[in-house]
Design brief:
homodimer; alpha/beta; two-stranded antiparallel sheet; 11 helices; about 45% helix
Chain lengths: ~300, ~300
């Protein structure tokens, strides 16, 4: 193998939304210099705020983060709106741009022009396949997907999935990087929409939607049944409220399964159109007065 | 409402397999006199052994069971192979006969002849619908399903599901009884094959089978992904090994979903035909040297 750095020195994160901010922070917290790129100074200001909040969360929730390390991570992050500058020294670029195929492809075309030849690109896309983006990167062999979960400091999986043209050594180098930033690498051997986690979550949440739509049981009953049987702290309706019902609806609408699309329409009519979007709106399947479910069906 | 006892005095359990024994014991442990019926003295001898073992498990695992109560429960259980004797004083008969439609119907025909008119019948069937059995009971209004989970002392759900002709007062009386024996009653409002729990579990386990069959990920990877993301102590492959792969296969083969049936055929070829049946056979998706998964994929 030639030309593949086994240890990355500089990491760049494109896009500073919820996941992008968490990935940038976790990478910096793990000791890497990080460059955070976004399209405007306004967005970067928002990102700086988010990263400050993440440092406070780590101080509270992550062992060893208080008393210096959480703050020190912030000092390892640079910010820029200049893509060429962002890419100049990057060994790895993690792309967390909005989940739109055409937009991501455009970003990869531009990135491919300005990044050094050796730079590896990894997409955090939830729903797209690497093969749908690979040719736009100009370096398909150095391109793959690395998908993180929300609340990266607690749910520390990195699902790593190449396309047919990904260099196996590049794949393994990214697996090694995932370990270095404290992730449990999940090696996905073939392209699979939804990777491992969403491939399991989606039919499980669909099944709960069907029980609701068909009038078989209430949200609180469904959740209680699952919690008692599984030992999992939350049932599927609680999880859907947390993810957000608009996201659930979006996934339903692109499903190849007719019943799943019908469930999406049902969800829109009974919840989304009434402003019940889940935790963030204060009501979904449950009403939320604070950060916890009241147990009262919405 | 007339003729419905709100408090049951005597409970009979038909069939003393894994679940029948647990239901008989839990009911006796909750203070009810219980009659356990099975078709032969040999089966009843086996049942007595199982119930002794359950008393030992309760002494270890159930708060307050040690030092008397667990043993006292055994003394509240009578045994008989005579159906008329088993039914004579029963307010409630819980049927836990082998999961075959024709057999269950035959038992209900005989039971309906010998049981007092007021006796309520509840079926613990996992897969059948009450409407498929109701007419054989001779008292469809006093018939419903009450479905328990394995390891009843830990997974204390009782899914209660009537058919269209079940008397709502009977339904509520059985809900009340479930609470009296320490169960969390799960009120299932409409007939649903698989109730709530299996309606959620089946597509979730199917999804894991698809990932395996399609070569996307290994059992240990799938389970790890789910455990980290969900906080549940087990992933789907661990759960399938616990349930037993022959049972998973049986559920696959009767699925209306073509891919689920294909997964069943795959499971048979790669596991069942090789004697890998899950925990009970010492190997399934994992190898078991003791009571725990080694984490080594089978």
């Amino acid at each position: 193998m030639t030309g593949i750095k086994r240890h990355f020195e500089n990491v760049t994160v494109l896009g500073t939304g919820v996941l992008g901010s968490q990935i940038a922070y976790q990478t910096a917290y793990s000791g890497f210099p990080v460059t955070a790129w976004d399209i405007s100074d306004e967005r970067l200001d928002t990102a700086k705020n988010s990263l400050e909040q993440l440092a406070a969360i780590y101080e509270q929730e992550v062992d060893g983060a208080a008393g210096g390390p959480a703050r020190a991570a912030l000092a390892r992050i640079d910010y820029t709106t200049d893509l060429a500058e962002a890419a100049r020294y990057a060994d790895l670029v993690i792309e967390c741009v909005t989940e739109k195929l055409a937009l991501k492809r455009e970003v990869y075309v531009q990135l491919g022009r300005v990044a050094p030849q050796g730079t590896i690109f990894a997409s955090n896309s939830s729903m797209l396949l690497p093969s749908e983006l690979a040719d736009s990167t100009g370096r398909p062999d150095r391109f793959l997907a690395m998908h993180f979960a929300n609340q990266i400091w607690k749910h520390n999986t990195a699902e790593i999935m190449g396309h047919a043209g990904t260099d196996p050594d590049i794949y393994q180098a990214v697996v090694g990087f995932a370990r270095q930033i404290g992730m449990e690498p999940i090696e996905v051997h073939k392209e699979q929409r939804g990777y491992v986690l969403n491939s399991l979550l989606t039919p499980w949440m669909d099944a709960a939607e069907y029980l609701l739509m068909d009038g078989v049981a209430e949200p609180a009953t469904i959740d209680k049944t699952w919690r008692i049987a599984s030992g999992m702290p939350q049932g599927p309706c609680e999880v859907m409220d947390m993810i957000g019902l608009a996201t659930i609806y979006n996934v339903n609408t692109v499903s190849g399964n007719e019943k799943s699309r019908a469930a999406g329409a049902w969800l829109k009519q009974h919840y989304i159109d009434q402003g019940k979007l889940g935790r963030t709106s204060g009501e979904g399947f449950y009403k939320y007065t604070d950060q916890r479910a009241t147990g009262e069906a919405g």
